[in-house]
Amino acid sequence: MGRGAQVSPLTRVDDAARRALDVVVSGVGLVLLLPVLGIIALLVKATSPGPVLFVQKRTGRGNRFFDIYKFRSMRPERGDANGNRSASKDDDRITLIGRFIRRTSIDELPQLFNVLRGEMSIVGPRPHAIGSLAGTKLFWEVDHRYWLRHSLKPGLTGLAQVRGFRGATDTEGDLADRLQADLEYLSGWTIWRDIVIILGTIRVLVHTRAF
Question: What's this model's pTM, rounded to 2 decimal places?
Answer without folding.
Answer: 0.88
